[in-house]
Specification:
This protein has 402 residues and is of the alpha/beta class. The chain has helices at residues 48-51, 93-98, 129-134, 160-167, 182-187, 210-218, 257-265, 275-294, 314-328, 363-371, 376-385, and strands spanning 31-36, 39-44, 57-61, 63-65, 69-73, 79-89, 102-110, 120-122, 137-144, 147-153, 195-198, 222-228, 251-256, 270-273, 332-337, 352-356, 396-400. The chain has two domains: 7-65 and 188-400, QueA-like; 69-168, Thrombin, subunit H. Helices cover 25% and strands 25% of the residues.
C-alpha cells in the first residue's frame, strides 16, 4: 500500500543564513554529526574513518557533474538558458559526449515562452574567442512546458564534452542564490568523479579528501563505486501536500557484476556515501525480483517497494541479476530507477549512510526519516542548535540504522 504521508510534517525552520553558500577552504574540515541508536555525537569530517566498522564495505557514486548550463541569445536580444538533462540522439551518455558537429538533448528551457522557432546563437558577451570559434547553435525540436528536445550544432570538430567545457557553466543549486564561480568547477565535484552525466553533485562525497580515503583503506574497509547520474529532479520541491502525488524522475545507473557478487555474498556492514548511492543499491532488490519473475531486469517504479509483499531474500534477488548478466555475457547492470524512499521502506542492503543536511519538505528528508526510523528531528534539531551548515556545501552526517 502506498503510504499516506503529508510533506508538511517534514518541515523545519531553515534560515537562509544557515545555508552554506560556499565550500570551506578544506573539504574535510566540515563538521560531522554521528547518529546511532537515538544518540548524537559531533566530530570533524576527517575523523570519519575512526567511526566506521572494520571490514565494512563502503560504496561511492562516481558520477561526474558536467557544465550543463548553456546561455543563448535570440535576435531580439532575449537570453534563453538551456539546461541539458539527458541525451536523446545519441541516447547513450558516452556517445553523446563524444558526438561531433551535432547532437540533441532533453533540456530544461529557461525563458521558454520567448523562444519560438528561430535558431539561437550562443551568448558570448565578452567575445571570448574560444566560445566564438565553436559556432554553437540551438534549435527547438519540440517543447512540453519548461522542458523540450533541443538540437545542438557546432562548426568545429570538438566533441560535445569539449563544447560544454568551453561554453557551459556548472549547474549549482538554485538555493545558493548566486551564479556559478571558478571555485565551483573544482569544489562542486567529488575527488573520485569519473563518469560524466550528472547535472547535480552527489554532495555527500564533497567532503572526502585523499587523506580521508587513505585512512578509510588503512582501517581495512573496502571501497567500491556505482554510478547514478543525478538529474534535475533533485532540485524539484515536493509541491503536493500528499507525497503520493509527487512524481520522481528516472535516473540511469550502472553497477558492475563484481560488486553485485560482493553484495550477494557479503557478511559485513555496508556504508553508502550519499542518498544517490542508497537509491541505486536499494533499487537492486527490485531489479532482482524482475529478473526472477520476468527473466530480465526492468526499471524500478517509484512505488514498487510499497505495493506488494516480496518473499524473495536479498541474496536470491541479487543472485538473479548476476545470473542474468552471466547468461547475457555482460559485465555490468545498466538500468534506471524512479524509486522514492519514505517512512515504511524496508532497507535490504544499506546499513550506514553518509549524507548532508537536506532541504525542508524534500524527498531526501523522507529518505533520512525512513533510514533512522522516523527520528530525523533529533538529528536536525541538534544540527540547527549546534552551528552546522546546511545543504550542498554544508556539513555532513553519519547515520546508522538501528
Amino acid at each position: 500500500m502506498i503510504p499516506e504521508i503529508h510533506i508538511e510534517d517534514y518541515n523545519y525552520g531553515l534560515d537562509s543564513s544557515r545555508i552554506a553558500k560556499y565550500p570551506l577552504a578544506e573539504r574535510d574540515a566540515s563538521k560531522l554529526l554521528h547518529y546511532k541508536n537515538g544518540k548524537v555525537g559531533e566530530y570533524i569530517f576527517r575523523q570519519l574513518p575512526d567511526l566506521l566498522p572494520k571490514g565494512a564495505l563502503m560504496v561511492f557514486n562516481d558520477t561526474k557533474v558536467v557544465p550543463a548550463r548553456l546561455h543563448f541569445q535570440r535576435e531580439s536580444g532575449a537570453i534563453i538558458e538551456i539546461f541539458c538533462l539527458e541525451p536523446v540522439n545519441p541516447c547513450e551518455y558516452n556517445l553523446a559526449f563524444a558526438a561531433t558537429k551535432s547532437c540533441s538533448w532533453k533540456c530544461v528551457i529557461g525563458n521558454a515562452k520567448k523562444w519560438k522557432e528561430d535558431t539561437l546563437h550562443l551568448y558570448n558577451p565578452g567575445n571570448n574567442p574560444k566560445i566564438s570559434a565553436l559556432g554553437l547553435h540551438a534549435d527547438l525540436v519540440n517543447r512540453e512546458g519548461q522542458t523540450g528536445i533541443v538540437s545542438f550544432s557546432w562548426e568545429d570538430n570538438s566533441p560535445f564534452s569539449n563544447v560544454l567545457d568551453i561554453a557551459g557553466t556548472v549547474p549549482i543549486p538554485p538555493y545558493l542564490n548566486r551564479e556559478s564561480e571558478p571555485i565551483d568547477l573544482e569544489r562542486y565535484q567529488t575527488l573520485y568523479a569519473h563518469i560524466r552525466g550528472s547535472v547535480a553533485a552527489p554532495t555527500a562525497g564533497l567532503h572526502f579528501t585523499q587523506a580521508v580515503l587513505d585512512n578509510i583503506r588503512s582501517k581495512g574497509i573496502d571501497m567500491e563505486t556505482v554510478c547514478l547520474h543525478v538529474g534535475a529532479g533533485t532540485f524539484l520541491p515536493v509541491k503536493s501536500s500528499l507525497v503520493s502525488e509527487h512524481p520522481m524522475h528516472r535516473e540511469p545507473f550502472v553497477v558492475s557484476k563484481s560488486l553485485l557478487e560482493r553484495l550477494r555474498d557479503r557478511k559485513s556492514p555496508l556504508i553508502a556515501v550519499g542518498t544517490t548511492s542508497v537509491r541505486t543499491l536499494e533499487s537492486l532488490y527490485y531489479i532482482g525480483v524482475s529478473c526472477i519473475e520476468r527473466g530480465e531486469p526492468a526499471d524500478v517504479d517509484q512505488w514498487a517497494p510499497y505495493t506488494r509483499e516480496y518473499g524473495y531474500s536479498t541474496e536470491e534477488a541479487l543472485g538473479a541479476i548476476v545470473d542474468y548478466l552471466n547468461r547475457s555475457g555482460k559485465d555490468s547492470l545498466v538500468a534506471g530507477t524512479r524509486i522514492i524512499i519514505v517512512p515504511g521502506f524496508k532497507f535490504r542492503i544499506v546499513d550506514m549512510l553518509v549524507t548532508n543536511f537536506h532541504q525542508p519538505e524534500s524527498t531526501l528528508i523522507l529518505l533520512v526519516s525512513a533510514f533512522v526510523n522516523g527520528d530525523w528531528r533529533t538529528i536536525y534539531d541538534y544540527a540547527l542548535g549546534h552551528g552546522f551548515r546546511f545543504l550542498s556545501y554544508g556539513d555532513s552526517s553519519l547515520l546508522e540504522r538501528a
